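Changelog note: in this version the structure field was regenerated for every chain. One regenerated record is shown below for reference.
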Amino acid sequence: MISGKIRLDLRGTRSAPALLNRVRNLLAGCANGDVVELVVDRHVSPHELVAHLPTDLRFIVSADDGYTLHEWLGVLRKGADL
């Protein structure tokens, strides 16, 4: 089981369904309360991504250019007001 902060590099996954499937598979070993940083291509919608993520994990989403986009800044939770 993984604990603490996990960084998942999801760059190169182009379609939303493929991205969500990849995220679900990678998160299978995460523990309740873990903080997961998702590094994604800039075109990915944070709203769509967060809406389909587990609620027992905390997420930080950052863009592929190494900088966190202002609308993605902070810890995201399912249903959060972005």
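Spot check on this record: Residues 67-82 have pLDDT under 50 and may be disordered. DSSP finds two helices and three strands in the chain.
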